[in-house]
Amino acid sequence: MKEKDSTSASDSDRTDGEISVPHGQTIVDFESKHDPETDPASNADPPPDVVPDGGLTAWLQVLGSTAILVNTWGLINTFGVFQAYYETTLLSSHPPSSISWIGSTQAALLFLVGVFAGPLYDAGYFRHLLITGMFLIVFGQFMTSLCTSYWQILLAQGFCMGSGMGMTFLPSAAILSQYFARHRALALGIASAGSPVAGTVFPIIFSKLEKSLGFGWATRVIAFILLAMSVIPVAFMKTRVPPHKGKKSLVDKSLFKDGPYLSFTAGGFFAFLTLYVPFFYITLYGTSQASVTDSFAPYLVTLLNAGSILGRIIPNALADRFGCLNLMLVCMSGSAILVFGWLGVRDLAGSVVFVLLYGAFSGGVVSLTPSVVVELSPDLSRVGTRMGFGFIVSGTAVLIGTPIAGAVLGGESANARWVPTILYAACGLLVATLLYSTARFLQYRKKGGW
Fold this sequence. Notes:
The protein is built from 20 helices and three strands. By secondary structure, the protein is mostly helical. A three-stranded mixed sheet has the order 1-2-3. α11 runs antiparallel to α18. The protein is globular, with a radius of gyration of 22 Å. It starts with a helix and ends with a helix. The N terminus is likely disordered. It is a multi-pass membrane protein. It is found in: Membrane. Belongs to the major facilitator superfamily. Monocarboxylate porter (TC 2.A.1.13) family. InterPro entries: MFS (IPR011701), MFS_dom (IPR020846), MFS_trans_sf (IPR036259), Proton-linked_MCT (IPR050327).
């Protein structure tokens, strides 16, 4: 009887204190098990086979990842005000679809460079990717402030900054899986909140300073902010687990036999093909179709990103309990319904409600994507490579998605074809919802649980 009680206690302790994770690692609440005042060894990092799931070093990684999201997705979410400025002032002789290539190139490279950044991260080159990427982002923003022609802006804001974003974004998401297991989705959600915060602040900075100081200095002020933000990840971020020994490949061949992962990746193509159409065109739609004044129109992008702040945190907090893929389905279906509803927006009030709600649901889609990839990966040693493969699919979609919308819309705002453009975006999100549902069903059959 005594032996049985001992065994039960042991099982209970193991259940409360540890959770098994892939590759034989365990998750331990490192803060609660070690008191710095009574145990000097508690200041040391936990061994590689123990996931700390908390502690100063772990949360500094979240802080660094937040700064990277400011410098990557924060800028991409700001491109709507640049698009409007280019169309009306600096590049007014170019059609909207051509200008969209600048923003879509930037966003696409964030994904496409991931096909190389993922394996390099797995191989132990995190710091090299981080420092090089941060330099390219800041350098590209400064160069954009000096640009006067289309090809110059495309090179600086599109290719240079996009390449830097691709080197930093995937590693910043993947590294959190080394420090968090039980609260991984929440950590990713908190980190991703840096994107909408930047997307809320940067459009205001640009709109205010462009009128008083001009395009050059408005862009340079943002560049100085990016430079300051870059110091945080460079100073604090580091990998915890040594690189996996063995031959590295750009492609994990096992993923081609993984039905849930393939369905999710296919859904990601249609999701990111159309997810950013409202981000790029809501300002123009507001002034031409919804009676929004020119002075207030840039704030629609700000409000869209403000709504996205809650969309980044709340779904990820719930995902740790209810499942990342389940919450992804909620956010994706909500985004699709809202874009269909965009067809009925005709005034300022409707525009404000739409951007706040769409920001919340679309923010959940973006922030949950890395968590779902981790959830669908068989072990942590292949997270970077699988993210890289998924990113090249999504990046291709981002590259062509908004220019297609611009081509459908047409060149002149007076004759713009808004209904086909909105339906294009809504149908893309609907197809993504169906494919994500397929991935969830296949995962249920594979795991036997929701």
